[in-house]
From TrEMBL:
GO terms for biological process: lipid metabolic process. It holds the Pfam family GDPD. Gene3D superfamilies: Phosphatidylinositol (PI) phosphodiesterase. GO terms for molecular function: phosphoric diester hydrolase activity. This is Glycerophosphoryl diester phosphodiesterase. InterPro entries: GP_PDE_dom (IPR030395), PLC-like_Pdiesterase_TIM-brl (IPR017946). Residues 71-334 form the GP-PDE domain. The lineage of its organism: Bacteria, Bacillati, Actinomycetota, Actinomycetes, Glycomycetales. It comes from Stackebrandtia nassauensis (strain DSM 44728 / CIP 108903 / NRRL B-16338 / NBRC 102104 / LLR-40K-21).
């Protein structure tokens, strides 16, 4: 006898049982996913977020319309202090204010050293022109790195003449900050820069290297990682690979191998879509030696948590790192 010729009651019961079993299975799966990823069952360690000071203590600027070629020194806000980014003095002030890690930019020089300076070109912040890498470290040290800063469209230059000799070498930074956490930013996409940095970093002790992270262009970071596989590094390609695999697999609690030993800069607009955000996600990354840094907005152009109001957007009990461009404003409030 075919199923079509059976009474309705006899055909409905098996179908109902199948639907019931499917429904129970889906509920169990949903329960498993919830329990495995909820932060309600995670216990964050520490008392407050750690702070990452972008470029040390520095001058802030209007970020509207900023792109990769914008000279930000020409659009600074009215100065609240006299510190200039990427200097020994500004880094020391950031650590003294409460920074747990300080970010700095490095540029390769003509004589195969590393200058600590933001720009590929010199004409935005200094009185010189041309590429940073076309001058030696000795030549760069003679420049006035405060020359181009203006808050009023060029009417006045409050730091002109005050930045002569203040561009440090990376060696000087290592000598000054022997144990503090540093985040080095390779600004180019030149693999030769990654190879040269690997050569310099390989002279440091394992203990010192554990407090150093390097991020930047995909090619130099790949070259650096090939030479120093144990060093904590991050690039856009590495982060996309990590998060892509994480979103696909980690609802079951696993952490992809591509997420190991790196530092993830997570935009706050994307963070809520991560499995287990914030505490379970943080626990998982910590278990594989990876740091989590929360950056403001969409993560474009180094947006940071720079005001008392912005701090309210940080998840409660978050104990990862928070990116800030105004360490002097944020640190006292945390």
């Amino acid at each position: 006898m075919s199923e079509d010729s059976l009474p309705a009651s006899k055909t409905t019961k098996p179908r109902f049982r199948k639907l019931k079993i499917t429904g129970i299975a889906l509920l169990l799966l949903a329960g498993f996913v919830f329990v495995n990823n909820t932060s309600l069952l995670a216990f964050p360690g520490g008392d407050a977020p750690q702070l990452l000071a972008h470029r040390g203590m520095s001058q802030t600027f209007d970020m509207s319309g900023v792109d990769s070629d914008t000279c930000t020194a020409e659009r600074i806000n009215e100065p609240r202090h006299d510190y200039l980014e990427n200097t020994i003095r500004s880094m020391k002030a950031a650590f003294d204010a409460g920074a747990d890690q300080v970010e700095l930019d490095v540029q390769m020089t003509k004589d195969d050293q590393f200058a600590v300076f933001h720009d590929w070109e010199l004409d935005c912040r200094t009185e010189a022109s041309g590429k940073t890498r076309d001058l030696t470290m000795a030549q760069l040290r003679k420049l006035d790195i405060g020359y181009g800063y203006t808050a009023d469209g060029g009417k006045t230059f409050p730091f002109r003449g005050k930045g002569v000799g203040m561009m440090p070498s990376l060696d000087e930074v290592f000598d000054e900050f022997g144990s503090q956490e540093l985040l080095l930013h390779i600004k180019s996409d030149d693999p030769a820069e990654g190879e040269l940095l690997a050569k310099r970093l390989s002279t440091l002790s394992d203990k010192r290297l554990r407090a150093i992270t390097v991020y930047g262009g995909d090619k130099p970071i790949a070259a650096l990682r090939e030479k120093m596989p144990k060093l904590r590094v991050m690039s856009k390609a590495l982060m996309m690979e990590c998060l892509g695999w994480y979103e696909g697999l980690s609802w079951i609690g696993t952490v992809p191998a591509s997420c190991r030993n790196t530092q993830l800069h997570i935009p706050e607009s994307y963070a809520p879509w991560l499995w287990g955000w914030p505490h379970r996600f943080g626990e998982r990354m910590a278990s594989v030696g990876t740091r989590v840094v929360l950056v403001a907005g969409s993560g474009e152009h180094s947006e940071g948590f720079d005001s008392a109001e912005s701090l309210r957007r940080i998840p409660e009990d978050f104990t990862g790192m928070v990116w800030t461009n105004s360490i002097e404003v944020v640190a006292p409030r945390l």
